[in-house]
Amino acid sequence: MAVTINFNTLRQRASQFAKDFEGVTSEKKSDQDFMRGFCAIFGINPNRIDWQYPLKEFNKVSKKSSTIWADGVLRGTLLIEMKSAGKDLEEAYIQASGYVSLMNDKDRPDYILVSDFANLHLYNRITGAPRLELKLNDLPQQIEPFLFLANYEIIAIEQQVHINKEAAETMAKLHDAIKATGYSGKDLETYLVRLLFCLFAEDTGLFGENGVFLDYLINHTQADGSDLHGCLMSLFDTLNKPDDSYLQEHAYYTGPKRLKNLPEHRAKFPYINGQLFAGALAECCFDEAARKTLIDSAKLDWSNISPAIFGSLFQAIMHFEDEAATAKSKKRREFGAHYTSEENILKVINPLFMDDLRKEFAKCGKTPAKLGAFHNRLAALNFFDPACGCGNFLVIAYRELRLLELEVIQKLFGNNLTAQLDVDTLIRCNVDQFHGIEIDDSAAQIATVALWLTDHQMNTKVQSLGLYYHRIPLVKKANIVCANALQIDWNEVLPAEKCSFVMGNPPFVGYSYQSKDQKSDLATVFKGMNGAGVLDLVAAWHITAARYIQANPKIPVAFVSTNSLTQGGQVALLWTELLKLNIKLHFAHRTFRWSNEGKGVAAVHCVIMGFHHSPVGANKFAPTMCRLFDYGDDIAGEPIEIQAKQINPYLVDAPTVLIDKRRKPLNPDMPEMTYGNKATDGGNLLLSQEEADFIHKNDPIALKYLRQFLGADEFINNLPRYCLWLKTVRHKIVKTHLKFNDAWKG
Fold first, then answer.
1. For a disulfide at 444, which of 272, 438, 670, 728, Cβ 3.0-4.6 Å?
2. pLDDT tens-digit series, residues 305-353
């Protein structure tokens, strides 16, 4: 498969890596940091690597097996063996080769890398070519032999994208099949959320025996779909009531219980709880086509699908009709158009907290007391997204937290924990550490379910430690509050003193496109501030967060924002208020393209701003180093990280100087600036390419007034758009066009 590699990006990363580990010599202190840094050059998520990969070695003398560990294994690709400075690397290679011989065929790597920090020796096991020897400082110039690592991650990402898109398309078909029967509204949304849970549970062992839901659909419902609604309601009721095993352990339970004589095909389903299946839904008259679509959905393997896509596919499925009704007409696009990619979410959460947590973990070494304290710290963290939508940021943050917790447990206890601890005591991180505010009730419900599904995915990974683990019935849940984040006191959701991190992707709405309610919210947040009406809506979250963290300077914040907040007149307006609150930036991504997986998706140019409260005097909780990510000429590519002394509101390593707007030029001989063309008619005089073509063919009078329209949105996103230019025409012509426009749309 052809893969485009940005060599300059790889060389720059390798150069920084070589600089970071210059003079490092101790395997015991720095081996994992070195291996993580090396893999990061090629974009490999460290969670894809098995640290201290366990192997069973048989001793012919004692006739007993013992466990040995390889330092780092990228399954099927690379084994890394680290040694302290001065150790014999040839002996290290012999040791590593011994590890490879003990591995199963699936995991056995094609390459072996041994290193004493200053030297790297690479062996290709497939070709048997002479080993590559190079000094650490030479790595940036000799990066080519390691490009197989870049390919590894790209292939893994492409496979995941394919799986996610297939799931999204399947869910869309299911939505359309049910809606075709006339079923719609809130009940349709709830129906799909419940079915999604069942599809996921079916393939991940949550229902016990895999395949029971598919069997239920095929063998216990009529082929014409006539009884499907009743059968599903009966199943949902069963999932909502405790079984005998639960009642035996919870004698105090007094709520609704299952009937003793349930048919076996329903009785085998476990008790789920969490109110997910509580309450009846309006009758849906399924037909044969809708039943077949549901069965086809159940045949798809949902086990490897990222829960991060659930919210996106639901937003795309549920709300495309509303989008089509806006002035800027949009219809349902390919899935991916509506969902925040994991790559972009990681751009927020890694510099906000995950990078620091990983460094803190590395400093623990193998000391049980330090590891135990760090584990307790992970379980005590609270994450807050005050514009959480369907929960994508919370889902990815929870996944990364659980993967890190798993590494801590492996360091503490090794890989065989069966006799060590009660698993419920062992796995301490849970969904109740995650908090959010979302104005849409259905999105809030989806966020809650997506976190439960992520929890189950992470629980299945505990099996790598030799334990089977699941958390049903559901007891704890994420704290997702359905409310307007610009009207509710955030402390009512999560008191600031208990909050650890604030993050998210608040809505971008320019002032020309804000609704009456949104303008009112913005005015309330910026009460008493002149000129705030021109700010993008996302600015209100920055101010509200800045006020929220005044009570707790430990809280760092990071929001994705439209880049208009770092350009032009909005900068001085926003930062005049933020500076009064002693807010400082500690990391930022300069303008980059907000990437999604769909085709034909409008380009969105964003920034990420990470900030903290920095009162007069030093804030001991504030980062001591500023990280600035720059995309150069390729805003869709990989960033270069710059170590900055400070980051000003224009995202430049320079002192903070705010530039106020002015109408009169500095040079008195230059004319004053005025507006060029600015459409403020609500989009009624704007025409799509299709509408313009219609006029060309059918209306020679209107054709006289047809002009191509080019604004910032059209220029940035390469959108063909036209307008009726009625500068010299009387008002009645405008009314005529509006009637024509309504007739054409009808």
1. 438
2. 776 666 555 555 554 444 333 333 333 333 333 346 778 899 999 999 9
Q: Domain 7-142: which CATH class?
A: alpha beta
Q: Specify the residue for token string 């009940």.
A: 187
Which residue's structure tokens are 């400070």? 646
As given in the structure block, the two tokens for residue 524 are 């309330």
C-alpha–C-alpha distance, residues 227 and 286, integer Å: 8
192-216 pLDDT, tens digit per residue, is 888 988 988 888 778 877 788 999 9
- Which one, of 630, 594, 607, lies nearest residue 560 by Cα? 607
Give the rounded percent of residues in the chain with a pLDDT score beyond 70: 85
Type of residue at 29:
K
3-class SS of residue 23: coil
CB 381 within 8 Å of CB 401: yes
Task: Please state the length of the chain.
Answer: 746
DSSP secondary structure code for residue 474 in this structure: B
Going by their DSSP bridges, the two strands 479-482 and 501-504 should be labelled as: unpaired
Tokens of 145: 């032999």
Q: State the span(s) of the chain assigned CATH 3.90.1570.30.
A: 7-142
Nearest residue to 269 via CA among 296, 246, 290, 299: 246
CB atoms within 10 A of CB 639: 18
Give CA–CA dist 34/322, Å, rounded: 50
Tens of pLDDT, residues 465-508: 666 677 888 889 999 999 999 999 999 999 999 999 999 999 88
Burial 323-339 (b: 16+ CB within 10 A, else e): beeeeeeeebbbbbbbb
Q: Residue 335 carries which side chain, given as an amino acid letter? A: F
The SS3 of residue 674 is coil
Confidence (pTM): 0.70
Q: Which amino acid would we find at residue 572?
A: A
Edge-to-edge strand ranges of the sheet holding 605-613: 479-482, 434-438, 383-385, 501-504, 557-562, 605-613, 583-593, 626-630, 640-644
